[in-house]
User: Fold this.
Amino acid sequence: MDRYLRHRIKGTIYGWNESIAKSPNVEEVTAEQAYPENFAPKAAKGRKAKVSLTTDELPEPPISDDMAELNAELTRKTQV
Assistant:
């Protein structure tokens, strides 16, 4: 079983080393605490989107006279 050390303030993970372990700012943690992503359930690892994210079939937005006026107003330069 591997041993790991975690810095209490910064949260960085180190492999167990006797000289580092003597520091009061580190604590010994388990492998699961050090690297929780390696112990995630299999159901969480292979999740995929349930909706289609393709954008090939997007319809063109309708352009009306109101939209043309709004577009002209938005693109008009204003004096500051």
Remarks:
- The chain has a mean pLDDT of 82.
- Residues 1-41 form one domain.
- The helical segments are 18-21, 31-34, 42-45, 65-75.
- The radius of gyration is 28 Å.
